[in-house]
From TrEMBL, chains A, B:
The keyword Transcription applies. This is Transcription regulator ArsR. Residues 12-106 form the HTH arsR-type domain. The lineage of its organism: Bacteria, Bacillati, Actinomycetota, Actinomycetes, Kitasatosporales. Keywords: DNA-binding, Transcription, Transcription regulation. It comes from Streptomyces glaucescens. It holds the Pfam family HTH_20. The keyword rRNA processing does not apply.
Length: 114, 114
């Protein structure tokens, strides 16, 4: 692997390094919860630029980083785009039913508060 | 209600003021997650002094306060003891299945990591 290529690979926790507390912290922010809901609804990878959030670009980058470092999403460069995907397989294997319960709770709250 | 009595009543969010993000933040700390697991396992009220946590008393008080202010627990003075109970009814009404999914995930992680 060349240095140039290595610099384009972002660090991720392995499945067994993912901690429940870190996942919950990642999802305790409204913007990050919204990102995860959009990724779950889409079911595929989305580039950072496909998210229109009411925060600055650097704050958006920070939120994606927290989600990646906690093991909630995987971020991969494809050409010049940074693509984001939910780590559903890893989360479902570690904590069966949790992701769906969290998404369900978020949807319910969103419907309630509008 | 007398002033003396009012000062012994701790503020709690009403059910419809409880936010998912706040609940997840409250549970994103290992000590707070442990407190909630113990309350769920006991199923009844426990006084703060019944918890033996590897942190200072003031840190313990802080953790209980975060849990109360997020709506995860209810704290009531009974005589000189501050009693703590899980707000399972409120959480189950707002987010059906979430608390059990969180407790299940915490138990699973605890079994895995020892």
């Amino acid at each position: 692997m060349t240095t140039a290529r290595a610099s384009r690979t972002l660090p991720h926790p392995a499945r067994d390094e993912i901690r429940l507390e870190g996942v919950l912290h990642a999802l305790s922010d409204p913007m990050r919860l919204r990102i995860v809901r959009e990724l779950a609804a889409d079911g595929d990878e989305l580039s950072c630029s496909q998210f229109v959030l009411p925060v600055t670009k650097s704050t958006t980058t920070h939120h994606f980083r927290v989600l990646r470092e906690s093991g909630v999403i995987r971020q991969i460069y494809r050409g010049t785009a940074k693509m984001n995907g939910l780590r559903r397989d890893d989360l479902d294997a570690l904590f069966p039913g949790l992701l769906d319960a969290l998404l369900g709770a978020a949807a319910r709250q969103s419907a309630r508060l509008g």
